[in-house]
Amino acid sequence: MIDYTGLNCPVCGKPFARDDDIVVCPECGAPYHRECYAQAGKCVFSDKHGTSAAWTPPQNEPKPAEPAQNPADSRTKRCPRCGSMNSQNAMFCDHCGQSLTMNQQDVAGFPPNGGIPQNGFPPNGFPPMGAPFQQGQPVPFIFDPMGGVNPSEPIGNVPAGDVAKLVQSNTQYYLPVFMNLHRFRRNRFNFSAFLFSGGWMLYRKQYKIGSVITAIMTVLYLISTYVSLNFSMPLLETLMQQQGISIDTVSPTYSQLLQVSELLAQQPVQQILLFCVPTIIAIVQIIIMLVVGFNGNKWYLKHCVSKIEQIHQQTPEATLAAIQLQEQGGVNTSLAIGLLICYMIVFYLPQII
């Protein structure tokens, strides 16, 4: 059965609609609006019936053959981190910046060639990005390593995808924070930076400012420990013994503490200041920690943008630049472990001695 929708009526020239009342010539099959055929009284092609010039239904034109697709351009490589599909020759994920050169099944449990297990989801519990959910199947939490940020969106003067390639670890936190800083100047307090200060910066490969803050905090701690062990604690023990308070007392009473405070106030000014040095240093350390906590994300964003711009200037080729981002970015875990060991030694050594 021929579909005449869209063909033109030979009498009025108007295209046929799907609901039009159409009649056809019994000889050649030419279609007409019923009113148009009644108006003409006959088929307008009647003098050509039986010849090659008679009306014939239009033939569907063959579709042009699609150009062969380059196998390298087909998106068959699945990212083991977010599940996005990438071109076969891609070295890094276009969505989250994850390296694609490692074995996918060893990293995240994906079957070879980007396949999906029978249950429809990879063994790591995360569905591939954009995968349809089957009816009746439980909908799991979809992990987006970009935190909802489009990889092509600019952060500063660099695309968010390059920032993700440099940050690598915990991008789902840093990418939205960086985007809010760039768009709206809205900062977010970084508790990791607050708690670990210079150590957090060294862990995030901000070596210059991280070394400075770590050195300052270390010097302050050493001074506080030395003054406390050699001046403050001995002076406090002496004053407590003068009031008949044993140093083994678990919790002195309020009146006993008040008597010790009165004795301390009677000491020379130099002794009082020396006694207060550990407390003053503790306040300074807290202030430094707060400053780093409030400004850590800003400093880290500035570091990332500067590093990415430097890499692109030195390495214009995109693939080599992506490799440099992967190598120079991320975190320094070995340095963080070394700092933790040093901190434990410095903290517990005075107590052992």
From TrEMBL:
InterPro entries: DUF2628, RING_finger_1_prok, Zinc_ribbon_dom, Znf_FYVE_PHD, Znf_RING/FYVE/PHD
Pfam family, one: DUF2628
Keyword line: Membrane, Transmembrane, Transmembrane helix
Ranges of residues in domain Zinc-ribbon: 79-100
Listed name of the protein: Zinc-ribbon domain-containing protein
Membrane-spanning ranges: 209-231, 272-292, 330-349
Region ranges (Disordered): 51-80
Entry keyword Protein transport: no
